[in-house]
UniProtKB/TrEMBL annotation:
InterPro entries: Aldlse_KDPG_KHG, Aldolase_TIM. Homotrimer. It comes from Actinospica durhamensis. Keywords: Carbohydrate metabolism, Lyase. The keyword Transport does not apply. Pathway: Carbohydrate acid metabolism. PANTHER family: 2-DEHYDRO-3-DEOXY-6-PHOSPHOGALACTONATE ALDOLASE-RELATED (PTHR30246:SF1), 2-KETO-3-DEOXY-6-PHOSPHOGLUCONATE ALDOLASE (PTHR30246). GO terms for molecular function: lyase activity. This is Bifunctional 4-hydroxy-2-oxoglutarate aldolase/2-dehydro-3-deoxy-phosphogluconate aldolase. Pfam families: Aldolase. Gene3D superfamilies: Aldolase class I. Belongs to the KHG/KDPG aldolase family.
Length: 218
């Protein structure tokens, strides 16, 4: 595995500061570096490319080769140890799973990078924490809403909960106000068709900026 040039805590610090990370789930990503730059210009410095995108290892490698200082790159929908290792080799600085995946957590721990592990129920949240998750991705968040996140915070006040799935500019602030460590933004900022078409960096930058503005406005 390649050495990681970024301390694992830097990723969490960036997510904590921005309180948002972008999840790119598209059939293709023509220019990963330009996409990441557009998101960063819009105020979202942490980007997750998912294994549902064909050839995602190449996408990660291209983005990593041109990664700006202060920005961070991760792999999502990581289901197996082999996928975890491939993502890290390609330059991923963090891993995200959609469910409890102990083998992925082990690979991340050996590499010294954080894993955001998917969970929904209290039992799953506790298991994710016990497996060493740096944060717990609550999915599907919009199905249960911000108040469900607040309820989870009761027994798990120290867990970093990151809602994902259906989070948009209209509900992101509510999740944050009720205890989310950060939120995941997806199609609201990086629509799959727009990403796949390429050449839409200006629009994606504007979408990111609009999301951040609504998320943080008083």
């Amino acid at each position: 595995m390649n050495d990681q040039s970024t301390d694992s805590t830097d990723v969490l610090h960036a997510i904590a500061a921005d309180r948002v990370l972008a999840v790119v789930r598209a059939p293709r990503v023509p220019d990963p570096a330009a996409l990441c730059a557009a998101l960063a210009d819009g105020g979202i410095r942490t980007v997750e490319f998912t294994f549902t995108t064909p050839g995602v290892a190449d996408v990660l490698a291209q983005a990593a080769a041109a990664r700006r200082p202060g920005t961070h790159l991760g792999a999502g929908t990581v289901l197996t140890a082999d996928q975890a290792a491939a993502a890290i080799d390609a330059g991923a600085e963090f891993l995200v799973t959609p469910a409890l995946r102990p083998e992925v957590a082990k690979v991340a721990a050996r590499a010294g990078i954080p894993v955001l592990m998917g969970a929904l129920t209290p039992t799953e949240v506790l298991t994710a924490v016990e497996l060493g998750a740096a944060a717990v991705k609550i999915f599907p968040a919009a199905t249960f809403g911000p108040r469900y996140l607040k309820d989870l915070r009761g027994p798990f006040p120290d867990a970093r909960l990151v809602p994902s799935g259906g989070v948009n500019a209209g509900n992101a602030r509510a999740f944050l106000e009720l205890g989310a460590f950060a939120v995941c933004c997806g199609t609201d900022v990086v629509p799959p068709d727009l990403v796949a078409a390429g050449g839409a960096e200006a629009e994606i930058r504007d979408r990111a900026a609009a999301f951040v503005e609504r998320m943080t406005q008083d």
